[in-house]
Structure formats: C-alpha cells, structure tokens
C-alpha cells in the first residue's frame, strides 16, 4: 500500500482531538493499515484498458436514448460533453500523479478544500460508481433477453448472476482483474470496429433517410429528410445527460493509483490515451448507428441499439451471434466499474468517512472484498426498487433512463468539485510537485465546471427523470446528515488525510 506518511506529529492534528471544521481524528496503529493493504500490478496498458473499458459499454447502449430529441441534438451534445471531458481528464492527469492515492476525486477535494469538500465529492462519486454498473447490467439483461428470447420478468436473474460473477472476479485479486479488463476491452473495441467498417462497406448507410427521421413533433418520418434539430436548441441541453454516457467513468483511473507500479509516470499517459480513444469511437457510433435502419427514431427507444444495427446489416440469425460478442462490450464496463466502486468505498472507509470495516482487504488476495460486495448490493437494491415501482414492462427508456440519469447526476457534481479542486490546488499549492501539467490549465477546469453545472440543471428540469435526480438529492441529504452527526468524529489519518493535513508536504512512501 502507498502511504503519504510524512511526520504526523508535526503536520497532523493530535488523534482524538477536534480540529478544523469540527473534525476529529481517531487513533490507529500500523495493524489497521496492515489489514488494508493493496497489491501493485497496473502499468500504462492496464490503465488505458481500465479507462476505456469502464466507458465502452456507453457506446453499446444508453447514449441512444438521447436521440429522442433528434440526431442534431445528439451530435451537438456529444461535442459539448467531449469538451467537458477533455477539461476534466487533463485536469485529472495533472492532479493524480501529484496526489497518487486511491481516493482519487475525494483526495483532490480533501487536499484542496478540506474534509467537508472531500466528503461531498466522495459521495457524488460514490453515487456515480455504484449506480453506473446498475445501468450497464440492465442493458446486459436487455441484450441477453434479445439473444435468448427470455421474458422481461427474467431480467433480474441476469442482473444477480452478473453481479455475482464479476464481483467474484474482482475479489480474486488485482492481477486477474486487470488481465480480464485488458482482454474484454480489446474485444469490445474490436466488435465496435467490425460494426463501423461493416456499416461503411454495406452500402446501407443513408444519413438523411435514417438519422433525420424524427419530425418536430417527435413522430417518425418514414422517408427521413427531417430537420437537424427537430426539438430546437433546447433539445441539445435535454440530450446532454445521455451524451455523458459516451464518456462517463474515464475519471475512475486515479482510484488505481495505489495498485499502479508508477502512478506519477503512467497515470497521465493512461488517462489521455483513454479519452482520445473514446472520443474517436463516440463520434463513429453516433453517426454510423444512427445512419442505418431503423434510424434515430427506432434506436432512440432501444435497449440494444448495436444489436439493432447488426440485425440491419446481417439479418436476425447472424446478428444474434454478433450480439453475443457485443455483450462483451457491456461486460468490459461492468467489470471495470465494479473495480472502481470497490476502491472508492475502500478509500473513504479507510479514512473513516464510511464505516472503517468496509476497507478491510482479503487476507491473501489483498482485494477490498467487503467494499466490493457492499457496493454490488447497493446497486442491485436500487435496480430492484425501480424495477418493482415502475414495472418490468417499462422498458429501456424508463428503467434504463432513470438509472442513467441518477448516475449522471452524481457524476456532474463530482466533475464540478474536481474542476474546483484543480483550481484551488493551483492557487494554494504552487509548491506541489506536478510530474504532468494540463495544457488547458485553469481554463479547462472552468469549462468542465460550467458544462457539468448546466447538465445537472437540465436534469432537474426534465419531467421524465426529475424524480430520479431528486432521489439522488435525498440520498445526499441522508449521507450528509450521517457525516454531521457521526462520521466527522471518526476520521483516520489514511494516506489521503495525512497528505492533506500536512498541506501537501507529507512524504509519499510505499509499503
């Protein structure tokens, strides 16, 4: 485990004594961290796969729900959101090697703005990473139902089986986890490349006929040729949460810092290579999946848009075979984001923000097994609640869209806080060693914050998904109450906390 240990007697508040912002640190000995060790394995290639793999399912399902506002809305929303992610990822590429701890976003905010800001950011990211696998496994269930012809009521069985299998793989250990990540990410990208090339060579791509087959009233235009922006400028803003799905979770890479051999050197390379790969693929899938039958109108309500595209290209029978391969893309993200919520819960509990027993690692595997199981149970519980409240017949637009918007709401707040963290770190910690510096600087962080805030605002004003976002706000209120009453008196000098209370002067050590 990597520990920013330094000299706690000089920099840290005495354990058990209330410090700034009403925070109290609890005394622990070395055995506490001994029970919470991680194992190093990742290098640049693994980090690239972790970032791309976490996102790639968004190119298979989810993004397409934004097409209900027309292709033009999806196109412009994708441009705007890509700009936001460039600002975010380059900022993270600078912050992560400067603060190479598992805490990631929480660590950035904690160091720059204090424990309350760290907790607010941590909860936002926790919502994102716990609910994102729930969205993905919903679409896995949709694909598997289409392949095997099972009834909608059978979907929860797919969900439970997927969680059990991939939580198990993550518990086995980081070596196997990263090997699986690299393999499934490469297969997922290969499947997308096959689709892109097939569309271009098939002669079936007709942009005007299929991508522009939505009228101003939202109805289907059988012959296409509709307006580029059928819902006007407002449609772009309404579509932005769905465009997020083309990139969401690339920011999880810093959570692997303590399992990376050289985070100061490898983390920036992995993050930047990952976002550039995703931007290219995102625009390919938006154009090519929309430009063939059944077109924007048809796939806007689909739970398996890539499968619909394969059906158009190759017919139903061959498409089922290809769809079985396409499920790998969803599995890539499902597997890697399970890794993310395990590390995210681990880091917050190791520091005492969550109950500390959640951060205990497996005796021989050194994986955060309790955090992994807890995150899976939370995500599955939310899915089942929505499933029973909305009904199995609600479909991808309602169930998948509700889960997606809940995850995106958490992400937008986390992005806003990370942009702010970057700005404050630049101003308050100019002495901090920065192995990599973002070419966009503070301007990139500001752009990220503005777009994230606009996206979150339009989520609150969307009547279809307003309840989901309000549900996230309620969860936030409950967790803030927990921290106010209990959590803030139980903090522990974890690597992130040690580094923060020392004003960035604590020595970074490996154990």
Structure, described:
This protein is mainly alpha-helical. The protein has a single domain, classed as Amino acid/polyamine transporter I (Up-down Bundle), CATH 1.20.1740.10. Helix content is 66%, strand content 1%. It has helices at residues 8-11, 30-34, 44-55, 71-98, 105-113, 115-148, 155-172, 174-202, 207-211, 232-244, 263-290, 295-299, 305-314, 316-350, 369-390, 395-428, 441-461, 466-485, 495-501, and strands at 2-3, 509-510. A two-stranded antiparallel ribbon has the order 1-2. It is globular and about 70 Å long. The chain crosses the membrane at residues 44-62, 74-93, 129-151, 157-174, 181-201, 228-250, 271-298, 318-341, 370-389, 395-417, 438-458, 464-485. It is a multi-pass membrane protein.
